Amino acid sequence: MAVEIVKVTTKKQLKRFIRFNYELYKGNPYFVPELFEDTMGTLRKDRNAAFEFCDADYFLAYRDDKIVGRIAAIINPHANEKWGLKAARFGWVDFIDDEEVVDALFSTAEAWARERGMNEIQGPLGFTDFDPEGMLIEGFDRMGTMSSIYNHPYYPKHLERLGYVKDVDWIEFRFTVPDKKWEKAERVAAIVERKFDIHIVRAKSCNEIAKRYGKAFFELCNESYTDLYGFSSLTPKQMEQYVKMSLPIADKRLLCLVVDKDDNLVALGISIFSLTDALRKAKGKLFPFGWWHIVKALFIKQPKKLDFLLAAVKPEYQSKGAFALVFNELIGHYIEMGIVEIESNPELEDNKKMQTLWDDFEKEQHKRRRAFKKELGTASFNDTGSED
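Predicted structure:
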């Protein structure tokens, strides 16, 4: 049977779009499903603040009335303006190992991009740098995480066959937490604190942190990440959305903020209990009973493994050792809590500033993922229609 491409236009189709990922990887021992409700919130145009300026459509590939692939086509004009590009993005891409299916999906996304005046397509990328990005090219036999993409080894082979080439790579690490704090780290943190008159925020709860520093948290991310691949600054509405989504459910022991004498945020680091096992048990869904596995992992019987989500330092403090305070504080908490292992978020392979933070750890670089790109011609776009 020929492959039919259908544009997602209904809530029912969007649910099918999200669930295909779960079905394709059913039984895979390394796949960690995204939380269905979070993905729905990201992809719905009435819920995601990125749609104030982004454009996107989603497509499903059918064969013999069965879904065999999916792809999102996205344009982030803020990123294009910042980086001087006319690029579309593809994301949330999954497919069976079939050339006809892959060709149909990518030709649709490419034609969509050309119709909108784009001359390049990149991905996998999301709307912002806080969405999952990068196709796994090494580490297929390693467990995924809640914030990263897992894919079959045949994915990058199909992209290369279609003429896609490397744009950038991210690498990921697994770290072993030491038995005790390092004297050197404590000494450096004390010197930096005294010399530059900065200090760690002591708060009673993450709700207090969200109220006092929520907006400043993501403003600092905007400053710190401005030169990173594909980044576009978060808008005030996006910041508000991320504050509500993330900070109130964090554990304050796993979050560290550093401020100057005027209470301006200059550095931060945030980690979270690994939700890998919880999401696998919940099968990516909160309801009817998946919420219990998530709550248990976050608040009741926390795992001894963490995901390090992000770090940010104000540019003028990056050479002053400000992150030494964050590092020293969090390591102390990790040891007190009995944490034994940390999984990093993807880090750009040339981001040496971030990687040197972990130099003293016992570590293993165990995964690599890639953003691909392809130059586009000038073919026209034909709408694929929609499912009844």
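Summary: The chain has twelve helices and 14 strands.
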